[in-house]
Design a protein that fits this description.
By secondary structure, this protein is mostly helical. About 60% of the residues lie in helices and about 5% in strands. It is found in: Cell membrane.
Amino acid sequence: MIYTNRAGLGVRAVANFLDFVLLATLFATIFYFVTGSFSFNFANGFAWQTFYTLYLIILPIIWSGYVIGKRICHIQVKRVDDGNVTFFNMFMREIVGNVLLGTLTFGVSILISAGMIVFREDKRGIHDFVGGTYVRRN
């Protein structure tokens, strides 16, 4: 099978970085107006992790596989059958494939996923296999 228009590790990393910076800035600004202090220490807390994970699950369902960073970088999460992602796909991808496996393996699965994205022809990591997804360039 020929895999065309698959997003590699570099563009995925840039999209994730953009998401983090944009959302952290928004969250820090809201935190400032609520508490009166401007700090990024909230990024270590449970509330931030919950918010960020829900963002990564819900927005792609609403926005046809995009989050803000992916939209900026012109990449999109799709199901392996080229359909739009569902709640089940994104839950399995983010919660099971990233959070749960990443925690249980002390981050080793994240490093393996990065290697898979770099070296596999289909550019799919562990979280893509768990979620039944891939990331494509538009």
